[in-house]
Here is the input.
Amino acid sequence: MANDYLSGGLTPVPLALAGALSPAPNFLDVLQGLLPPGAPWTRELDAELTKLIRALAFELLRVHLRADRLLEEADPSQALELLPDWERVAGLPDAYFAPVLILDRQAALVARLSFRGDQSRASYVAAAKQLGYDIEIQEFQPFSCTSTCVDSLAQGFPFTCISSCVDLVGQSSWAF
Here is the structure.
């Protein structure tokens, strides 16, 4: 289908351009249709004007197919060229998870962007499980009106928890 628009076959369409999302319009016919009628504006395949218009049509096809590829890049699960930009926006890779393979990077990006959790212990455990980690969370209780008089005002780390993760290297802990 991509070679049909050339009508002369003088310039082959590269395979990378042949896989468009949307059917490529016949830019040669469209551009020739914009020409005024008359003998100087011939539509013969071997005419110099047709060769010029064919080159312009090929460039329009290239831009059209590039725009189709840009639409694919808008989906983070299919992004290749914009993957580093998507990761920068999502704060990836982080200090705890840095996948190397593109499919793993895309999966981590989609997981980060589509995570729908809250600040509960179960939500953090589920998020870590989705990334392939088994974690345990230790929470500290802040001093409150139900605490006894002998409890310390600075007991533990208020509003902080410690998550312990066992990975391939060994056990590591971090606070958040």
About this structure: Residues 1-21 have pLDDT under 50 and may be disordered.
